[in-house]
Design goal:
Elements: H1 5-17, E1 21-26, E2 29-36, E3 41-50, H2 54-61, E4 74-83, E5 87-94, E6 103-114, E7 120-126, E8 137-139, E9 142-153, E10 156-166, H3 173-200
Parallel strand pairs: 6-8
Antiparallel strand pairs: 1-2, 2-3, 3-10, 4-5, 5-6, 6-7, 7-9, 9-10
Length: 204
Amino acid sequence: MQLSPFLVLVALAQAAGGGWTAAGTKSGVTLAFRDDPQLEVREVRATTDLPFPAARVFPLVCDFTHYGTLVSGVQETKLISGNAPSAYEVYLRYAPRFLVVSARDVVVRVQGQSMPDGSSGCHWTDLKEREPERKGIVRMPLLRGSWTIEPLDVMRSRVVYQVAVNPGGRLPGWLVRRGAVSALPDVIEQVRRRLERESHDPRQ
Protein backbone atom coordinates (compact mmCIF):
# COMPACT_ATOMS: atom_id res chain seq x y z
CA MET A 1 0.00 0.00 0.00
CA GLN A 2 1.33 3.41 -0.94
CA LEU A 3 1.73 5.78 1.98
CA SER A 4 0.06 9.18 1.92
CA PRO A 5 2.26 12.29 1.64
CA PHE A 6 1.60 13.02 5.33
CA LEU A 7 2.78 9.59 6.45
CA VAL A 8 5.81 9.80 4.16
CA LEU A 9 6.85 13.04 5.85
CA VAL A 10 6.40 11.52 9.30
CA ALA A 11 8.37 8.43 8.30
CA LEU A 12 11.21 10.54 6.90
CA ALA A 13 11.34 12.61 10.06
CA GLN A 14 11.51 9.49 12.20
CA ALA A 15 14.18 7.89 10.03
CA ALA A 16 16.36 10.99 9.83
CA GLY A 17 17.58 10.71 13.41
CA GLY A 18 17.80 6.92 13.46
CA GLY A 19 19.39 5.31 16.47
CA TRP A 20 16.28 3.68 17.87
CA THR A 21 16.88 1.10 20.61
CA ALA A 22 14.35 -1.67 21.15
CA ALA A 23 12.74 -1.56 24.60
CA GLY A 24 10.70 -4.77 24.43
CA THR A 25 7.02 -5.47 23.97
CA LYS A 26 4.26 -4.97 26.51
CA SER A 27 0.63 -6.00 25.98
CA GLY A 28 1.21 -6.21 22.23
CA VAL A 29 2.84 -2.77 22.06
CA THR A 30 6.36 -2.64 20.62
CA LEU A 31 8.51 -0.04 22.40
CA ALA A 32 11.67 1.80 21.38
CA PHE A 33 13.63 4.86 22.48
CA ARG A 34 16.46 7.13 21.41
CA ASP A 35 18.28 9.95 23.15
CA ASP A 36 18.43 13.35 21.48
CA PRO A 37 21.68 15.09 22.52
CA GLN A 38 20.54 18.44 21.12
CA LEU A 39 17.24 18.53 22.99
CA GLU A 40 18.74 16.58 25.92
CA VAL A 41 15.66 14.38 26.15
CA ARG A 42 14.70 10.78 25.53
CA GLU A 43 12.28 10.24 22.66
CA VAL A 44 10.04 7.19 23.05
CA ARG A 45 7.91 5.32 20.52
CA ALA A 46 5.11 2.77 20.74
CA THR A 47 3.79 0.77 17.78
CA THR A 48 0.80 -1.55 17.74
CA ASP A 49 -2.17 -2.73 15.67
CA LEU A 50 -5.70 -1.89 16.77
CA PRO A 51 -8.90 -3.66 15.66
CA PHE A 52 -10.57 -0.38 14.71
CA PRO A 53 -10.79 1.69 11.52
CA ALA A 54 -8.31 4.55 11.22
CA ALA A 55 -11.21 6.98 10.86
CA ARG A 56 -12.27 6.18 14.43
CA VAL A 57 -8.78 6.28 15.93
CA PHE A 58 -7.79 9.68 14.54
CA PRO A 59 -10.44 11.92 16.19
CA LEU A 60 -9.85 10.23 19.53
CA VAL A 61 -6.06 10.37 19.82
CA CYS A 62 -5.62 13.75 18.11
CA ASP A 63 -8.16 15.64 20.22
CA PHE A 64 -6.25 16.68 23.33
CA THR A 65 -9.26 18.42 24.85
CA HIS A 66 -10.30 15.10 26.38
CA TYR A 67 -6.85 13.68 27.13
CA GLY A 68 -7.76 13.32 30.76
CA THR A 69 -9.53 10.09 29.77
CA LEU A 70 -6.49 8.73 27.93
CA VAL A 71 -3.33 9.97 29.65
CA SER A 72 -2.80 9.30 33.33
CA GLY A 73 -2.26 12.45 35.36
CA VAL A 74 -3.90 14.96 32.99
CA GLN A 75 -6.18 16.95 35.28
CA GLU A 76 -7.08 19.95 33.14
CA THR A 77 -7.41 20.67 29.44
CA LYS A 78 -8.40 24.04 27.98
CA LEU A 79 -8.82 24.82 24.31
CA ILE A 80 -7.11 28.15 23.63
CA SER A 81 -7.70 28.55 19.91
CA GLY A 82 -8.55 26.60 16.76
CA ASN A 83 -10.62 23.47 16.26
CA ALA A 84 -9.67 19.99 17.49
CA PRO A 85 -8.50 17.63 16.11
CA SER A 86 -7.34 19.48 12.98
CA ALA A 87 -5.44 22.62 14.06
CA TYR A 88 -5.56 24.12 17.52
CA GLU A 89 -3.73 25.20 20.68
CA VAL A 90 -4.50 23.59 24.03
CA TYR A 91 -3.42 24.01 27.65
CA LEU A 92 -2.65 20.83 29.63
CA ARG A 93 -2.09 20.49 33.37
CA TYR A 94 -0.65 17.31 34.83
CA ALA A 95 -1.10 16.33 38.47
CA PRO A 96 1.91 14.90 40.30
CA ARG A 97 2.01 11.16 40.96
CA PHE A 98 3.74 11.83 44.27
CA LEU A 99 2.95 14.53 46.82
CA VAL A 100 6.58 15.72 46.86
CA VAL A 101 6.49 16.46 43.11
CA SER A 102 5.01 19.71 41.79
CA ALA A 103 2.27 19.76 39.17
CA ARG A 104 3.29 20.45 35.56
CA ASP A 105 1.62 22.32 32.75
CA VAL A 106 2.27 23.13 29.10
CA VAL A 107 0.63 24.68 26.05
CA VAL A 108 0.96 22.80 22.77
CA ARG A 109 0.02 23.47 19.18
CA VAL A 110 -1.50 20.41 17.51
CA GLN A 111 -1.68 19.96 13.75
CA GLY A 112 -3.74 17.07 12.41
CA GLN A 113 -4.38 15.76 8.94
CA SER A 114 -6.63 13.09 7.48
CA MET A 115 -5.93 11.86 3.93
CA PRO A 116 -8.34 10.51 1.29
CA ASP A 117 -6.67 7.08 1.42
CA GLY A 118 -7.68 6.71 5.08
CA SER A 119 -4.29 7.42 6.64
CA SER A 120 -4.12 10.18 9.22
CA GLY A 121 -2.19 11.57 12.11
CA CYS A 122 -1.15 14.61 14.07
CA HIS A 123 1.94 16.15 15.56
CA TRP A 124 2.40 18.68 18.34
CA THR A 125 4.99 20.94 19.89
CA ASP A 126 5.12 23.14 22.96
CA LEU A 127 4.51 26.88 22.72
CA LYS A 128 6.73 29.15 24.76
CA GLU A 129 5.05 31.90 26.78
CA ARG A 130 1.65 31.25 25.23
CA GLU A 131 -0.07 31.34 28.63
CA PRO A 132 1.07 32.97 31.89
CA GLU A 133 2.73 30.57 34.30
CA ARG A 134 0.68 29.59 37.33
CA LYS A 135 1.95 29.81 40.88
CA GLY A 136 3.04 26.45 42.25
CA ILE A 137 3.02 24.74 38.83
CA VAL A 138 6.18 23.96 36.86
CA ARG A 139 5.97 24.90 33.17
CA MET A 140 7.28 22.00 31.06
CA PRO A 141 10.16 23.19 28.83
CA LEU A 142 9.42 20.65 26.10
CA LEU A 143 6.61 18.39 24.94
CA ARG A 144 6.66 17.16 21.35
CA GLY A 145 5.19 14.14 19.67
CA SER A 146 3.02 12.58 17.02
CA TRP A 147 0.37 9.98 16.27
CA THR A 148 0.56 8.18 12.92
CA ILE A 149 -2.41 6.03 11.93
CA GLU A 150 -2.19 3.69 8.95
CA PRO A 151 -5.20 1.62 7.82
CA LEU A 152 -4.36 -2.07 7.43
CA ASP A 153 -7.85 -2.89 6.16
CA VAL A 154 -11.36 -1.59 6.73
CA MET A 155 -11.38 -2.76 10.36
CA ARG A 156 -7.73 -2.58 11.48
CA SER A 157 -5.15 0.16 11.92
CA ARG A 158 -1.48 0.39 12.78
CA VAL A 159 -0.68 3.24 15.14
CA VAL A 160 2.64 4.80 16.08
CA TYR A 161 2.73 7.02 19.15
CA GLN A 162 5.92 9.04 19.61
CA VAL A 163 6.77 11.49 22.41
CA ALA A 164 9.72 13.56 23.63
CA VAL A 165 9.28 15.33 26.96
CA ASN A 166 11.26 17.42 29.40
CA PRO A 167 9.10 17.89 32.50
CA GLY A 168 11.34 20.59 33.96
CA GLY A 169 12.03 21.07 37.63
CA ARG A 170 14.47 18.87 39.51
CA LEU A 171 13.23 15.39 38.68
CA PRO A 172 16.11 12.89 38.32
CA GLY A 173 16.95 12.16 34.69
CA TRP A 174 16.82 8.39 35.20
CA LEU A 175 13.28 8.63 36.56
CA VAL A 176 12.08 10.72 33.61
CA ARG A 177 13.66 8.33 31.08
CA ARG A 178 12.21 5.23 32.70
CA GLY A 179 8.75 6.73 33.10
CA ALA A 180 8.63 7.95 29.51
CA VAL A 181 8.86 4.44 28.06
CA SER A 182 6.63 2.71 30.60
CA ALA A 183 3.76 5.21 30.18
CA LEU A 184 3.12 4.60 26.48
CA PRO A 185 1.45 1.14 26.66
CA ASP A 186 -0.98 2.52 29.25
CA VAL A 187 -2.05 5.27 26.84
CA ILE A 188 -2.52 2.74 24.04
CA GLU A 189 -4.61 0.56 26.36
CA GLN A 190 -6.84 3.50 27.27
CA VAL A 191 -7.34 4.22 23.56
CA ARG A 192 -8.31 0.60 22.98
CA ARG A 193 -10.78 0.59 25.90
CA ARG A 194 -12.35 3.88 24.85
CA LEU A 195 -12.93 2.61 21.32
CA GLU A 196 -14.35 -0.66 22.63
CA ARG A 197 -16.83 1.22 24.82
CA GLU A 198 -17.89 3.35 21.88
CA SER A 199 -18.43 0.20 19.79
CA HIS A 200 -20.90 -1.12 22.37
CA ASP A 201 -22.63 2.19 22.95
CA PRO A 202 -25.99 2.18 21.10
CA ARG A 203 -25.79 5.95 20.76
CA GLN A 204 -22.72 5.68 18.51
